[in-house]
Amino acid sequence: MSLISKTPQPPYYAVIFTSTRTEGDNGYGSMANRMLELAEQQPGFLGAESAREELGITVSYWSDLESIKQWKGNVEHLEAQKKGRKGWYQSFKVRVSKVERDYGFS
Amino acid sequence: MSLISKTPQPPYYAVIFTSTRTEGDNGYGSMANRMLELAEQQPGFLGAESAREELGITVSYWSDLESIKQWKGNVEHLEAQKKGRKGWYQSFKVRVSKVERDYGFS
After folding, report:
1. Which of B3, B91, B105 sits opposite A105 (nearest CB)?
2. DSSP B29-67
3. What is the rounded distance in angstroms from the CA atom of residue B9 to the CA atom of residue A35?
4. Distance from chain centroid for Cα B38
5. Which of A27, B21, B46, B71 has CA 20 to 30 A from B13's CA?
6. pLDDT value at position B1?
7. Which of A66, A71, A70, A60 is nearest to A95 (CA)?
């Protein structure tokens, strides 16, 4: 989770999830780990990157919109989304975007 | 920088910048603050979100590709990019993406 994802040549998709948390863990940490484990098993999953300070940012990469839709509708993930709205997050925003170009070095 | 950006209705663009740092500050912190200050003055700038743990993620939002190109070519920013490659970053990746859909709550 802590390294730069080795994504393929564009185009592919990025889901940018930014959030602020409520106080206390309340099971959030173990849920977050489980969701990553589960996402990695989904068709079309290409990688995920995450960091949190005041604001948390998780970017997950996907091969196509259908894979994102399937992941959003995953039963265990739906349960986590419900708990997120009810307790874990003070605010969040999800942005679904199409990566058109990338470059970098390592 | 620490709050969720109030972006307009899609479509708009997101530049996802992920990086790992080298040891020590070496002027990085003040450069990062200056670059945000400068980005905010650019035409087409819509907001920026940032967090760093092992991995640093900064997502900046822009109205169009031309604004992103102008920002990439900004003289002071070019100098920072050069120093980034030479010393501040161990690795980085820039992904230019088009936000097609967003939702959330606050």
Report:
1. B91
2. HHHHHHHHHHHTTSTTEEEEEEEESSSEEEEEEES-HHH
3. 28
4. 11
5. B21
6. 45
7. A60
Which residues share a beta bridge with B102?
A95
CA–CA separation, A33 and B30 (whole Å): 34
CA distance A99 to A3: 18
Residue numbers in chain B where pLDDT is lower than 70:
1-2
Give contacts of A102 with chain B, Cβ < 8 Å: 93-96
Question: pLDDT tens-digit profile of A9-22?
Answer: 999 999 999 999 99
Q: How do residues A35-79 score in pLDDT, each as one tens digit? A: 999 999 999 999 999 999 999 999 999 999 999 999 999 999 999
Q: What is the ipTM of this complex?
A: 0.95
A97 chain-B contacts, CB cut-off 8 A: 14, 97-100
Q: Which residues pair with B74 in a beta bridge?
A: none
